[in-house]
Amino acid sequence: MNRETVVTEALDLLDDVGLDTVSTRRLAKRLGVEQPSLYYHFKTKKDLLAAMAEAAMAPHAHAALPGDEDDWRSWFLDNSRSFRRTLLMRRDGARLHAGSTPTGDLYRIRRKMAFLISSGVPERRAQMGMLAASRFTVGCVLEEQAEADAPDSANLPDDVPALDHEEAFEAGLALILGGLEQHTAAPDTATCP
């Protein structure tokens, strides 16, 4: 048993039972080991959850970085869509990711920021745009995954239309991009909060 095996099994357990029910006791039973043996790899459950969050983000973390020839607007949309798809790959993926610190991804984040800045997006606007898109995406996926787990989500009144989560995500993302474009097109004289 190594760290990678523990994380893989923990993510499979997450998919099976959900974040609220993931425990080191259940994980140890799944791995066929005693619970204290998990502490060799992870000192706390928080450490385990952080490793799970990082591993769950691997598909997005390995997506191609933007190239000099890429249009920043198209890349911004594609990057947010990739993030959303990755969060949706795991049950409670957004909850697992929320509050995690992307320490292993700092090089990639810096490259993305440098790309936006070299494309003409003012630095502070690029930071706030990426933060807004990230938090918006996590929030959208939180709502989508919560609705999927709700026992009576299909019992809406006839006059309340069902929400198309992808359509709503795309509409909100377009608004964020539009705001970023507006601030990028004009001289950056105002300061971001």
3D architecture notes:
This protein has 193 residues and is mostly helical. The protein has nine helices and no strands. InterPro entries: DNA-bd_HTH_TetR-type_CS, Homeodomain-like_sf, HTH-type_TetR-like_transc_reg, HTH_TetR, Repressor_TetR_C, Tet_transcr_reg_TetR, Tet_transcr_reg_TetR-rel_C_sf. This is TetR/AcrR family transcriptional regulator C-terminal domain-containing protein. It holds the Pfam family TetR_N. Keywords: DNA-binding, Repressor, Transcription, Transcription regulation.
Feature tags:
transcription; HTH_TetR; Tet_transcr_reg_TetR
Question: How do the strands and helices of this protein lay out in sequence?
Answer:
Blueprint: H1 3-17, H2 24-31, H3 45-56, H4 58-61, H5 72-88, H6 93-97, H7 106-118, H8 123-149, H9 165-185
DNA-binding region: 23-42
Keywords: DNA-binding, Repressor, Transcription, Transcription regulation
Protein name: TetR/AcrR family transcriptional regulator C-terminal domain-containing protein
